[in-house]
Specification:
431 residues, alpha/beta, TIM Barrel, Immunoglobulin-like, seven-stranded parallel sheet, five-stranded antiparallel sheet, 20% strand, binds ligand FHN
């Protein structure tokens, strides 16, 4: 339930204040786009006529493809339809405030121009452009934040890189792979490439590490050293366990009650992160909107994934969903951006997000299921009410009455929005 907070000023030390300042835009943003794009988009889940089970960006490991054979994918990789302007435009339309793209996934292939390794999109493919440079420029132009994902530990292309069963001491699936110490790869490729991405793309906002399988503290420190030169850079908690980074990263699930620490759920729209042509397990736009709301109501961010094709396009079902989310966000974004978690433990009809506005509190009631009797009850609310209205149509006001501390909102028997109606409760003073 919800009771007035005591007005005790919080005392924060300098480091906490600086951290809060760095995290401010990220905490407000609530919604970002993840992009998994690499050579794996070409086989798209199928190898030599066989569908390889599992997520498509893992095809090299799952199908046991030798390095030299996988490398050949680069010879045909030519995403001529790639249009950074269109990608960024759609992300913005969907209401996303930042983009995180795979600069190098576990397969070891850099999707940016790298001097540290020839195995990159400019030097190893017929595509004579640096797509991440184009993306970075577009993000600046259109005013959206940008982060790069970098698989720092797993690099299946390099003799020193780690791979999925290294911890069990199993040999690399490529029998010709002669193992080298991890630090050869870290110093020879990972550190220089991380320097490149942080230096050459106009200043990244986020560096998104991935699973620290096989990492050592020495390797993590070498990479952390590079990142430390960028005080505004936000990093996640996957560089090295148990280092917390700036935020934690629940994957493919929403924590039941949220987390104390800053957190971001990363989530696919279907099953695979990378493009997989036969993956039709799409979540509906309605479910994705509810997921975003659910996450915001627990104080977290949603990083929603798109897996572009080898041709350089977003799959149609992803485009459709992003557009539908955008239509909803344009009307209801106020109930997501810059909001805080719900003060209620559980609401039978939906979720709640809150925001302080000029000394008053806005409660945003996200009604997933309208109560049959048309009476929306907010239990245990000790507050005075200024106004209650529909966010998508502020002229639509609602009548209310209190029964003890329970607020009953009289909802006329009209369905206002197709998906997830938001009712705003403006209180007098803070809740
Ligand atoms: O193995 C990867 C996977 O391919 C994908 O990139 C996800 C995204 O969070 N991270 C790893 C699994 O945790």
């Amino acid at each position: 339930s919800c009771s007035p907070k005591q007005d005790k000023p919080e005392v924060k030390d300098e480091a906490t204040l600086q951290h809060d300042q760095k995290m401010e835009w990220w905490r407000e943003a609530r919604f970002g786009m993840f992009i998994h794009w690499g050579l794996y988009a070409e086989p798209a889940g199928e190898w030599k006529g066989e569908r390889i089970p599992g997520i498509s960006e893992w095809i090299m490991a799952r199908a046991g493809i030798p390095v030299k054979e996988y490398e050949k994918l680069a010879e045909n990789f030519n995403p001529e339809k790639y249009d950074a302007e269109a990608w960024v435009k759609l992300a913005k339309f969907a209401g996303m405030k930042y983009i995180v793209i795979t600069s190098k996934h576990h397969d070891g292939f850099a999707m940016f121009h790298s001097k540290a390794s020839k195995y990159n999109i400019v030097d190893a493919t017929p595509f004579d452009r640096d797509p991440l440079k184009e993306l970075a420029d577009e993000c600046k132009k259109q005013g959206i934040r940008l982060g790069f994902y970098y698989s720092q530990a797993q690099d299946w292309h390099e003799p020193g890189g780690t791979y999925f069963n290294i911890e069990e001491g199993k040999p690399h699936w490529d029998k010709d792979m002669v193992r080298e110490p991890l630090m050869n790869y870290i110093n020879g490729k990972a550190v220089p490439q991380v320097k490149e991405i942080l230096e050459n793309y106009g200043g990244l906002d986020i560096l998104w590490w991935d699973t620290p399988r096989g990492m050592t503290e020495e390797a993590a420190l070498a990479l952390q050293d590079v990142a430390d030169n960028y005080p505004d850079l936000i990093t996640n908690n996957r560089l090295y366990r148990p280092w917390p980074g700036d935020f934690s990263t629940p994957e493919q699930h929403v924590p039941p009650t949220g987390l104390d620490y800053d957190w971001e759920v990363c989530m696919t729209m279907n099953t695979s992160w990378g493009y997989q042509w036969y993956d039709e397990n799409w979540k509906s736009a309605e479910d994705l909107i509810k997921m975003l709301v659910d996450i915001a109501s627990k104080g977290g961010n949603l990083l929603l994934n798109v897996g572009p094709t080898a041709g350089g396009e977003f799959p149609k079902p992803s485009i459709e969903r992003l557009k539908q989310m955008g239509v909803w966000m344009q009307k209801n974004g106020e109930s997501i951006y810059g909001t805080s978690a719900s003060p209620f433990f559980k609401l039978p009809w939906g979720r709640c997000t809150t925001k302080e506005v000029k000394g008053n509190t806005n409660l945003y009631l996200h009604v997933f299921d309208w109560p049959k009797d048309g009476l929306l009850t907010v239990p245990g609310l000790k507050a005075r009410i200024n106004d209650i209205y529909l966010l998508s149509n502020p002229k639509q006001h609602f009548a209310w009455k209190f029964e003890g501390d329970d607020l009953h909102i009289h909802a006329p028997s009209v369905i206002f929005d197709e998906i997830n109606t938001v009712v705003v409760v403006k209180t007098k003073g803070k809740v």
